[in-house]
Amino acid sequence: MASLALGVAFVLWALWSVAATGFVRIPVFSALAFRQPAPTRIVESGNINLNRWIEAFGGGISSRVSLTVPEEVLTALLRSADSSDGLGDVIDFSKSQIAVEDGALEIFLPFKDAPTAITALLVPSADENGLHISAMEFRIGSRRIPKFLLRNLVDRVLRLVIDRVEDEFGSMATIERIAATADGLVIEGVIADGALSL
Q: Which superkingdom (predicted)?
């Protein structure tokens, strides 16, 4: 009897989990478990000219520089990302966005062929090897997903944005610090040898 109850509980949990992702509509379960995913707030795409946000520390010529990339620009970089590796067949990049939320980046990636989305909460950092992202939480639809299941996909998507930022900023400075702030993604560093002074 106990094994039967355990089996029924497992089946109910599995149905609930699948329904919560939004990939499959399961009568009763979907109505209870699934909520249409939405980002924390809507972020419109902005001007991608990163040089506009590069500043010398303290004004004038300085060996230290800072780049503040607003969430509107991060969203524009994400939407214009080259998804030639097949990601564009799965993710609707035209509706994807990045919002800065409580020291973290919220990545919202809607699927093309399903009424659901991946929502990832990530924390950026930097060291001598460049920019890094650590995962706090992944969701598909209303269902929280173990990090290892989505890490590779989200890394591939975010790399499209990070590589562009590193190309722009890393060509003129050695990156020392990165942080998500209310103003956007702030990257600080020291002007590299041979780079033009600001």
A: Bacteria
